[in-house]
Design goal:
The chain has 341 residues and is an all-alpha fold. Helices cover 78% and strands 0% of the residues. The chain has a single domain (10-320), classed as Na+/H+ antiporter like fold (Up-down Bundle), CATH 1.20.1530. The longest helix has 38 residues, at 292-329. It is globular, with a radius of gyration of 20 Å.
Length: 341
Amino acid sequence: MARPKLLPDNFTLSLVGTVIFASLLPVHGQAAVGFNWLTNFAVGLLFFLHGAKLSREAIVAGATHWRLHLVVLLSTFVLFPVLGLALKPLLSPLVTPALYAGVLFLCTLPSTVQSSIAFTSIAKGNVPAAVCSASASSLLGIFITPALVSLIVTNQAAGGSSAWHTVWNIVLQLMVPFVAGQLLRPVIGQWIERNRGVLKFVDQGSILLVVYGAFSEAVTEGLWHHTSLGALGGLVLINVVLLALMLSITIFTSKRLGFSRADQITIIFCGSKKSLAAGVPMAKVIFASHTVGAAVLPLMLFHQVQLMVCAALAQRWGARDLSGETHAAAGERPAPAVARR
């Protein structure tokens, strides 16, 4: 039986199920302390495996395309936060202050790696450049995100931690395992490549653990008593507006700057997306425990919106590219440039 097109992927369904389970049976007390240690271990293992997976050759090969990477990084770490702040007077009344703090946190996150590369490939974009841009964004985000959070998110939402303390926690819990994985890549890199399912299991499993722990704490502190259905609807609208603006700006900017069609596709997908895999562990380190649930809820919704929209765009642009190749092979004139955007 074919899977319904409108049915979310299994991981999204798992996320929803985890939130429901945490809402009904939250972990608390001494069990929560042990669960927190398990989650910290899973997150450290996740970044260790990502460090072992990341190819230095791919980074070096794509690093020469500095104009493209600069546009992606500026879109991710400058334009996104500016939009979040500029739209706050207009959009913040739609949600609670805690949820909009999560929206601002979302705006500071690095670009997602796997789906950005996958969508770039489907749309016939510059895949090597996407690998480099997305990887660089993920790595730099370990340092840039906590610094941006300290600047644009209130101290109350971030638990009152100093920027240096937050950066130190990020380095200790995320960067150290990542570097260790890079150093051991010559030893375990090939094993990681042959067993990608292990990385996917740890990737998704660690996120589910963090989400369960975060929402357990948030539910105990009364998250759903302070979050109405209207606020959830407003949050979806905010995510749609942010994504639509970022897609429009990256499409317009990449074209005006004279990038090739393949490079435009890379800029659009790498510059408009946010990483759930990096954001959830970072939220656990940056925010106070009772505010993590509200901080990651906007990201979880944005993750699903960006997957659905970008998947449709990638398939559409990829199909147009194949159509153009077919016409060229048949000696026909390809479609006008305006129709191939």
